[in-house]
Amino acid sequence: LTVVDALTPSVDSPPPRARRSRRRQGTISRWVVLFVAALYFLGPLFAAFLFTVRGNSGRISFHAYGEVFAPPPGGQESIQTALLLSVGLSLITIAVTLVLLVPTMLLLHLRFPRVRPVVEMLCLLPLVFPPVVLVVGVSDTLQWTPDNLSGFALSVVNYIRAPGLPLILAFVYVILCLPYTFRALDAGIRSVDVKTLVEASRNLGSGWWTVLYRILLPSLRTAVVSAAFLCFALVMGEYTIAKILLYKPFSVWLVELPASSGQLQVAASMLSLLIINVLLLLIGAFNRGGREKKGATA
Amino acid sequence: MAETVETGATGSRRRRPFSFAWMGLLPFFAFVALFFVLPIAVILFTAFLKTVRVRSQVTGQFEPKTSFTFDNVTQSMHGVYLTALGNSLVLSAVTAVIGAVAGLLLAYAVVSGRSSTLRRLITAAAAVLSQSGGVQLAFLFIATIGGSGLLTTLLQDQFGFSLIRDAGFSLTSVNGIALIYLYFLVPLMVLVMTPALEGLKPQWSEAAESLGAGRWHYWRYVAGPVLMPSFLGSLLLLFCSSFSAYATADALTSGSFPLVPIQIASVLSGNVLSGQENLGAALALDMVVLIIPLTFLYQYLQRRTSRWVG
Lengths: 298, 310
Prior knowledge:
The structure holds 2 protein chains of 2 kinds. Chain A is mostly helical. Chain A contains 14 helices and no strands. Chain A has helices spanning about 1-5, 15-55, 65, 80-110, 115-125, 130-150, 150-160, 165-190, 195-205, 210-220, 220-235, 240-245, 250-255, 260-295. Chain B has helices at about 1-15, 25-45, 70-75, 80-110, 115-130, 135-145, 150-160, 165, 175-200, 200-210, 215-245, 245-255, 260-270, 280-310, and strands at about 50-55, 60-70. Chain B is mostly helical. At the A-B interface, α2, α4, α6, α8 and α11 of A face α2, α4, α5, α6 and α9 of B.
């Protein structure tokens, strides 16, 4: 068959010159497409950067980037408060996601493989329901509680929606992140032979705690770290839920800056995009590195 | 090895003691039920509820009375909400089609090149950019082609060309929003179409060529039909992604452009007449009813895709 493959192009193929010119034409249109794409995707980044460093009388100044961290005009909250809330929420989201998902998925893998499709479907469902739909439900549920709950249940609800640290946001973010975190962890668990590892270490006399902390978590390190990074990137950029539930993490703060601070808003956007994009690129590099290493040893 | 495991399993099945292991699954299911299933169920419920204040026959005072009704749903398809629904559908359809075609061209340009560095670079960039549909994107474009954006002022000062007067382009119009949406839709398309394009085996084009097919015939009868389910599936994905986007349009127009998600936010912030508080749930229900059939279609197309392109 390889012989046939090797021979086919020469059989009844167009004369070489026609082919070459066709290929050159293809190359030109390829570069045109790539050039237009580069212009569209890099242009706004470049223009926004120039916009932020445009000082008075055409001089370059970086004062907009300094101003990002100064107290904003108009008596608004400072960026530190908003950033602190965003970082706090993403850390809680990561913690809840890992505590909830890692044991569940290991259990599914080791003991209940038949329940796995159900969990997978539940985890991918948030992709179907837009965040703006989910937040309607959350908001309606929260509005319903004061009249219909009392005592301990009501105080729990009031605690998780407290404006200082709205845990409810973190919990909804856990749901929004599920499709991504599930896939990241699932890929990790599939790539190591969890069953053999567990049986081996159990045979050698270790307890379940030791198995989890000294055997499983280290071998799932890549998956856990990339799930955590994904959560962080998603929560730092999230706007819809927080805005509608009237909380003020970083992205809502950014939009609610007074309109006069155009340069400031763009500068803050550039900084946060930079951080989020670098994180996402790291996840990609991390995953690829892991895969290549595995490929090399296999 | 495998044998010992299996005998162990069957042995324990015969006389397995009652196990508490399944309780380990409870926290996950409880969490998802509380923060995902419950809110969605609440929408289904409240969309059909309406509270009106009526004068009580007994006390003569106004008391809230809640009843089941289709009023909210009817209301959500009239007036400004109908406009929003139309805008959302048109915007999503147009951006999905343009994004899908542009993304396919870009993905093909990347895949057909022999440079694996370029391919890796573009894939990584596409993965990042497809997630970039946030408020930051709006500010990026405001700085570029907004009212006092860099390109706007450059064109005005150097060529006396006004984007808004001479080209009729405004960033806060539907054209502007579409232009921004493409910034994350095209990368999404590149991301999902690259594997499909890589699945086109060179043998197929060689076989077609040796049978006398030209380039057009190859695309029309071989590559086209193989790629079609995957292309249509991606088109649906782009449509849904565009349909549910909220942050960018809200930040860009300060919540004034009539799109369904923006109307939902406006209803929830109390921007409605008394008695229409549940309109938000009805609008959310409209969105879900539109998206769910598309999801099933997407699933079907995905299965069709995997037949040829692994």
